[in-house]
Amino acid sequence: MSNSSINEQSSWAALIKSAALIEQKELKSVVLSFLAVFILMAAYYMLRPVRDAMASDWSNTEISVLWNIQFFLSLVVVAIYGAAVSRIKFRYLVPAVYGFFSLSFISFFLGGSLISDPVLLDKGFYLWVSLFSLFHLSVFWSFMADLFSREQSKRLFGIITVGASAGAILGPLIASIVAQTVGANVLMPAAALIMLIPLPIIFYLQHLKRVELDNGKLAVDPSTLKIGGNPLEGFKQFFSSPFLIGIAVFILLYTAISSFAYFEQTNLLRAFDRDQRTQILANLALVVNVLTFALGFFATSRLTTRLGMPITLALVPAFMCAALLVLAFAPILTVLLALQVARQAGNYGITRPAREMLFTCISQESRFKAKPVVDVVIYRGGDAVWSSAFALLTDGIGFGIAAMAAIGAGLAAVWAATGFALGSWFNKRDKSADKPLPTEDGSVAGMNTT
Questions:
Q1: Which of 32, 154, 209, 272 has a beta carbon 3.0–4.6 Å from 276's, enabling a disulfide?
Q2: Residue 212: is it exposed, middle or buried by C-beta count within 10 angstroms (0-12/13-18/19+)?
Q3: Residue 439 lies in a domain
Q4: In this structure, what DSSP letter does residue 222 have?
Q5: Is 372's pLDDT higher than 70?
Q6: Exposure of 6 by Cβ count < 10 A (0-12 exposed, 13-18 middle, 19+ buried)?
Q7: Which has the minimum average pLDDT: 53-62, 167-176, 217-226, 272-281?
Q8: Residue 177 in contact with residue 51, Cβ under 8 Å?
Q9: Looking at the 3D structure of the chain, how many domains does it have?
Q10: Is 309 inside a domain boundary?
């Protein structure tokens, strides 16, 4: 290789390291992790417009029923996932999840081509994609929390999150082109096949964990083990862990603010026709993804390393508290859309990666069993609870946007306090990282003793 080529590669490596705080030995793992989540998110965003197009054929009551079913479906699937965690070797677990979802979407496509009146099948697909939207990211971040150390997660999760944002941009573009040229029916099998691409990447990342990241266990290679225990152990671990309950409260408060913003956005957009709404929301999504990309690449790692986890987790909630107070005094569309940009970009670029770092200080079994309880069941439960609460306060009692914004500001203040407390708790556990936390049976957290 010529000296100029070597110097050019060194310059690029130095630029990446300077921008995102990536060490040389971590670069390959970060790039592959970025690529994996990029592909997974692109596949999901190819499926989402297919799902949402189906929903236009149903009444609001039918959709409401589906949302309630979604919560109970989450309970069942998380329990089944717990059983799989107990029986499948760790190195095969994550690829098996994505392979299973890929096959399920191919089955939906084949079923739709064989059934003359696929209404029930379409509703099943709607529920399944909604579940996949949370579950596939939960599993991915469980894998990331096991791949990188606590110290590495503070520097690297932000840049990996950018991959999700980039995939969220590419997926809708592909869906739009395919729907206009070939037809939307092709999107389902195409996304299912694309979902298989990360499987060899995941296997290779497990290899890099040992040979380049130096994060393999000294005595035992966890990729050869099964994560044992009761299939319902995730629920048990969740309810017995104040730390996990704290994360759940943090997520519930986030879903409260999300529900408020969604309902008020819907109300304020009623004055526009469908084309205008589409244009407004498309521009909103573009701004959010660009900001998320910038935050993830340049800001998130520095926030967590320089300001610390307590401030990082409380930053977006505190900003939302102030923004909601502004909205209470100026309940107009422009203010609401600015609030939505800040909320979504802040969540995807700062809060979400910081929240995922919290799971690096719990045991491996908890990451794969209790984490889906938090990410899927609690999240969907929050959607169900808060949507009903806001509907009661607005349609039932008659609260307007100003009153709802004031209530939202109060919830955001509690959300900020919860984030600060969680970050402080994380720091205490992080300082004792050299002393592995004991589990209930006395074994060392993160090590399988079965």
A1: 272
A2: middle
A3: no
A4: G
A5: yes
A6: exposed
A7: 217-226
A8: no
A9: 1
A10: yes
Instruction: Flag whether 237 is in a domain.
Output: yes
How many degrees, rounded to 5, is the angle at CA 107 between CA 103 and CA 112? 155
The first and second tokens of residue 163, run together, are 């991959």
- Burial grade of 415 (CB within 10 A; 0-12, 13-18, 19 or more): buried
Q: What is the mean pLDDT of residues 361-370?
A: 70
pLDDT recorded at residue 103: 93
Number of Cβ within 10 Å of residue 225's Cβ equals 17
pLDDT in tens, 382-402: 877 887 777 777 777 877 777
Residue 371 confidence (pLDDT): 75
* Secondary element (H or E) of residue 17: helix 3-20
Kindly state whether residue 7 falls inside one of the protein's structural domains.
Answer: no
**What is the signed CA dihedral for 228, 229, 234, 240, rounded to 10 degrees?**
-130
The answer to pTM > 0.85 is no
* 449-to-239, 408, 444 alpha-carbon distances in Å: 22, 46, 8
Residue 439: closest CA among 375, 366, 371: 366
The set of residues, in sequence order, having a beta carbon less than 8 Å from that of 323 and lying 6+ positions away, is 335, 338, 339, 342, 343
Q: What is the CATH number of the domain that holds 79?
A: 1.20.1250.20
Q: Report whether 368 contacts 141 (CB < 8 A).
A: no
Could you please report the per-residue DSSP string of 162-183?
Answer: HHHHHHHHHHHHHHHHHHHHT-
Distance separating alpha carbons of residues 339 and 342, to the nearest angstrom: 5
- Closest C-alpha to 266, from 146, 385, 401: 401
To the nearest 5 percent, what fractions of the chain are helix, strand and coil? 85, 0, 15
Please give the pLDDT value at position 106.
92
Which three-class secondary structure state does DSSP give residue 20? helix
Q: State the Cα–Cα distance between residues 140 and 94, nearest whole angstrom.
A: 8
Which range marks the domain in which residue 339 is found?
20-431
pLDDT at 437 over 50: no
